[in-house]
Automatic annotation (TrEMBL):
<dbReference type="InterPro" id="IPR029058">
    <property type="entry name" value="AB_hydrolase_fold"/>
</dbReference>
<dbReference type="GO" id="GO:0016787">
    <property type="term" value="F:hydrolase activity"/>
</dbReference>
<keyword id="KW-0378">Hydrolase</keyword>
<dbReference type="InterPro" id="IPR000801">
    <property type="entry name" value="Esterase-like"/>
</dbReference>
<dbReference type="InterPro" id="IPR050583">
    <property type="entry name" value="Mycobacterial_A85_antigen"/>
</dbReference>
<dbReference type="Pfam" id="PF00756">
    <property type="entry name" value="Esterase"/>
</dbReference>
<protein>
    <submittedName>
        <fullName>Predicted hydrolase of the alpha/beta superfamily</fullName>
    </submittedName>
</protein>
Length: 332
């Protein structure tokens, strides 16, 4: 299943604006980050991980979301990721989640040679998190550049563990394009959500596009993957995380958000049962949740109620009626 990703320009503007404050702000939806040390048998050394809990995390919660991201020792990446997650949680676009930042001792070796880090995450870190906090009902892995390369590899190799992947400007050229080969090998065997983004500015980003576009072509044809892709026009390699992480998180949790919207509109309709706007948005939620026949009935109801709305001007009513008829037609 392929989803074309489109977000309002205002979202991109907000992301660009808030990143300037990401190191000085107190995150309203997140607790203070903790750096924990793990004695790793895999690495035969102490490893450190940054854990940021949701502010309302409860010990007795049975399930939570883990979002694992690479390059947490890069202050820019860490700040951008936490700020993006905080903003989306605050606006109920993603659920309260545990954010797990991986600190690298030898970044290139760990991300490109892959297997030790892969084993550390699966056999040591994730079990520790489940024991210390709560079981995860969804685990997302995310990264930029070589981090995006590793995140893709981990998602493909341990698809039973990772439900979703966010790869921002991933470098798919290392190790003789082995990730591209693995994508082809795993065709129609992998499941979950995958978000991929690439910019188009400066050589260090342009040089990655060939591999990313090959991956896009493969992923678009995976029957068990919900795939989203963005070309971040005007963004260079190191700038793509500025908006890429937020867009990726929003895409990965799109169905969760529509479930929330459905509940919100049901509450609104208790007080305004005939208002076409709430009826239409409830229909949108049902449509995105693949309850198409129910959505069609609501669009038809909204269409009838719109014609009774005396507050709408002629041009406004014409626009709304056109939009609702298009939605009804789309339902089949």
């Amino acid at each position: 299943m392929v989803k074309i990703v489109s977000k309002r320009n205002v979202f991109l503007f907000i992301q660009l604006f808030v990143c300037n404050f990401c190191f000085s702000q107190i995150y309203s939806q997140l607790s203070l980050s903790d750096t924990i040390a793990i004695h790793s048998k895999v690495f035969n050394a102490e490893r450190k991980v940054i854990i940021t809990k949701p502010s309302n995390a409860k010990i007795d919660d049975k399930q939570s979301n883990y979002i694992v991201y690479m390059d947490a020792n890069d202050q820019n990446i860490n700040g951008l990721f936490l700020q993006s997650a905080n903003n989306l949680i605050a606006n109920k676009e993603i659920p309260q989640s545990y954010l797990i930042g991986i600190i690298h001792k030898n970044r290139n070796t760990e991300l490109l040679e892959k297997d030790k880090l892969l084993k550390f995450l699966k056999e040591e870190l994730i079990p520790l998190l489940k024991d210390k906090y709560n079981n995860a009902n969804q685990i997302t892995i995310a990264g930029h550049s070589f981090g995006g390369y590793f995140a893709t590899y981990a998602f493909l190799k341990d698809n039973d563990l990772y439900n979703s992947c966010i790869a921002i400007s991933p470098a798919y050229w290392p190790n003789k394009n082995d990730v591209i080969d693995l994508l082809l090998e795993k065709a129609n065997l992998i499941r979950g959500n995958f978000y991929l983004a690439i910019g188009d500015k400066r050589w260090d980003e342009i040089s990655l596009r060939n591999g990313v576009l090959k991956a896009q072509n493969i992923l678009e044809n995976q029957k068990n993957i919900v795939f989203g892709f963005n070309e971040l026009k005007g963004f260079s390699h190191n700038a793509t995380p500025t908006v890429g992480f937020g867009l990726g998180l929003s895409f990965i949790y799109d169905q969760w958000e529509w479930t929330n919207i459905l509940e919100e509109q049901e509450d609104n309709l208790k007080f305004f049962p005939e208002f076409w706007g709430h009826i239409e948005i409830k229909g949108d939620a049902l449509f995105h949740l693949n309850r198409v026949s129910e959505a069609k009935l609501l669009y038809q109801e909204a269409l009838q109620n719109t014609s009774k709305d005396e507050k709408l001007s002629k041009s406004e009513m014409s626009e709304v009626l056109k939009r609702l008829r298009e939605k009804i037609e789309k339902c089949g």
